[in-house]
Specification:
- It is built from five helices and no strands.
- With 102 residues, the protein is mainly alpha-helical.
- Helix 4 packs antiparallel against helix 5.
- Keywords: Membrane, Transmembrane, Transmembrane helix.
- One of its GO terms (cellular component) is mitochondrial membrane.
- InterPro entries: Hypoxia_induced_domain, RCF1.
Length: 102
């Protein structure tokens, strides 16, 4: 009989991680993708702006290249590089400010 009780207590101890998961989940705020994007945009608005400018320059540069406007295409590719650099710097500044505030 004692052997059976020992095995049931062992079985219950194996499921402690379930209770731990429930405790962690109850403390964490669950947010949708849209809510997370809005929160991240408020934390560091320059990164999404830099990404948008990069995408716009790339798209317009490729469109210009396809239509034979090589000078505009070159200008847009240079703008894309600048926008990517701006985005990287904005990310690094955001990370630095977040680390400093914590």
């Amino acid at each position: 009989m004692e052997n059976k009780n020992d095995s049931s207590s062992t079985d219950l101890s194996q499921f402690d991680w379930l209770q731990l998961k429930k405790d962690i989940d109850s403390e964490m705020k669950i947010e949708s993708t849209e809510q997370k994007f809005i929160r991240k945009f408020k934390e560091n608005p320059l990164v999404p702006i830099g990404c948008t400018v990069t995408l716009g320059a790339l798209t317009y540069g490729l469109w210009s290249f396809r239509h034979g406007r090589s000078q505009m295409s070159q200008y847009m590719m240079r703008l894309r590089i600048v926008a990517q650099g701006f985005t990287i710097v904005a990310m690094l500044v955001g990370i630095g400010l977040a680390a400093k505030s914590k």
